[in-house]
């Protein structure tokens, strides 16, 4: 799937626009070694699986003020909102979050954080309480990239940050909050760059 996305905003509140998948997916797995011989012991791991769910994007993201270019999604059971931030503007989204370490993937270190949102709007409606999971890239990029969701999900899980059982959506999002900017991106699944 390849989807173009184009949006422009100008200082008027909050805007979130994206393209991607609904429902989202926790991962996809493929065999990374040949099938085991029939004589192999049944309890011995024979063909490790590697998460290959990746999202590729290419285009332009230009913004002043508080804005993000990120992978954004929600899970339910429990209700979790998550961001994998590729670029942010004047406000670091980890401000006020609890630090949960780092993950190194896709050519950069990402700082990991979590915060609790109380009485906020969510995919389940207003007045929701939920956690937000964050991975924020140190080496920002705004024109193209590949994001390995599995690497982030695995790092979050190791940090005690467990996503919900049901994935609602996963999108490449351009988000602005009382800022101005433009975003023109093509998003696809797999390593397209």
Description:
The chain has one helix at 149-158, and strands at 2-10, 14-21, 29-31, 49-51, 54-76, 80-88, 98-105, 108-122, 125-137, 144-148, 166-189. The longest helix has 10 residues, at 149-158. It has 193 residues and is mostly beta strands. The strands form 2 sheets. Strands 1, 2, 5, 6, 7, 8, 9, 10 and 11 form a 9-stranded mixed sheet that branches. The protein has a two-stranded antiparallel sheet with strand order 3-4. The two termini are 14 Å apart.
The termini sit apart by: 14 Å
| Chain-averaged pLDDT | 82
Q: Name the overall outline.
A: globular
Number of strands: 11
* Number of DSSP helical runs: 1
**Main β-sheet, in a few words?**
9 strands, mixed
Oligomer: single chain
Low-confidence stretches: 28-52
Radius of gyration: 18 Å
Order of helices and strands: EEEEEEEEEEHE
Strand content range: over 45%
Q: Which secondary-structure class do the elements indicate?
A: mainly beta
Task: Estimate percent helicity.
Answer: under 10%
């Amino acid at each position: 799937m390849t989807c173009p996305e184009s949006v422009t905003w100008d200082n008027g509140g909050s805007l979130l626009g994206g393209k991607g998948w609904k429902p989202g997916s926790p991962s996809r797995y493929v065999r990374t070694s040949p099938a085991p011989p029939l004589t192999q012991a049944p309890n011995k791991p024979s063909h490790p699986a590697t998460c290959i769910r990746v999202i590729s994007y290419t285009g332009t993201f230009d913004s002043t003020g508080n804005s993000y270019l990120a992978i954004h999604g929600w899970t339910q059971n429990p209700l979790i909102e998550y961001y994998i931030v590729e670029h942010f503007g004047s406000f670091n989204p980890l401000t006020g979050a609890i630090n949960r370490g780092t993950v190194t993937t896709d050519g950069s270190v990402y700082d990991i954080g979590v915060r609790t949102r109380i009485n906020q709007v969510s995919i389940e409606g207003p007045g929701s309480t939920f956690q937000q999971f964050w991975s924020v890239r140190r080496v920002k990029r705004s024109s193209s990239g590949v994001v390995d969701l599995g690497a982030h999900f695995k790092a979050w899980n190791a940090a005690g940050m467990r996503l919900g059982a049901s994935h609602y959506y996963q999108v490449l999002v351009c988000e602005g909050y009382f800022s101005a900017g433009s975003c023109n991106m093509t998003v696809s699944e797999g390593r397209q760059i």
